[in-house]
Amino acid sequence: MASFKGTYVYTLDPKNRFNIPAKMRNAFIPEDHDGVVLTRGFDQCIYVYSMTEWKKLEEKFRTLSIMDGNTRKLIRLISGNAHEYDLDKQGRVVIPHTLLGFAQIEKEILIIGMLNWIEVWNPKIYDEVHRNFDLEKTAEKMVSF
After folding, report:
1. Which helix (H) or strand (E) holds 120?
2. Mean pLDDT computed over 4-27
3. In whole angstroms, what is the distance from residue 139 CA to residue 99 CA?
4. Which residue has the higher pLDDT, 137 or 127?
5. Using CA atoms, how far apart are residues 30 and 111, in angstroms rounded to an integer?
6. Whole-number Å distance between alpha carbons of 28 and 52
7. Distance CA 94, CA 16 (A)
8. Backbone φ and ψ of 5, nearest 5°
9. Which residue from 99, 84, 81, 80 is spatially nearest to 16, judged by alpha carbons?
10. pLDDT, tens only, 60-112
11. Which whole-number Å values give the CA distances from 99 to 26, 70, 133, 145, in the listed order?
12. In degrees rounded to 5, what are phi and psi of residue 68?
């Protein structure tokens, strides 16, 4: 199974489009037909899912109890902000205005591969979110090799 990885710096074009890097596009499986879903992510970024990964997320959401208020809010914010697009021939996708506002993206973006999905960030917010993150301490607590 291919995965999304790497960090790329891009600039939105006048129509608020960006190119999904070719190396990331190569991670899409043929069944995805170059379709993606953009939605609100955590930490004030935008998530980009392949159609296959989006369907897996939807299935997980369907197993949750809607009797729980936080579950409803989670599904509402993720699914309610989801936008389905086909990539054009150049591998571009439009970011809707609602998501641009949420992520405070103006022109420059960071595109980050997160294995199963892609994140799109305002570079300044990315730096703020990660400013005090201690990689070594976190890895020590969470990862064993």
Report:
1. strand 118-121
2. 94
3. 31
4. 127
5. 22
6. 9
7. 6
8. -150, 160
9. 99
10. 999 999 999 999 999 999 999 999 999 998 889 999 999 999 999 999 999 99
11. 25, 21, 25, 37
12. -90, 125
User: Using an 8 Å Cβ cutoff, are 119 and 46 in contact?
Assistant: yes
Specify the pTM.
0.91
Report whether pLDDT(126) > 60: yes
Block residue for tokens 């103006």 = 106
Decide: helix, strand or coil at residue 86.
Answer: strand
Q: Calculate the average pLDDT of the chain.
A: 93
Domains and CATH numbers, the chain: 7-142 (3.40.1550.20)
For 94, residues 6+ apart whose C-beta sits below 8 A from its C-beta are: 15, 16, 17, 85
User: CA separation (Å) from 9 to 47, 67, 81, 122, 134?
Assistant: 16, 42, 24, 10, 23
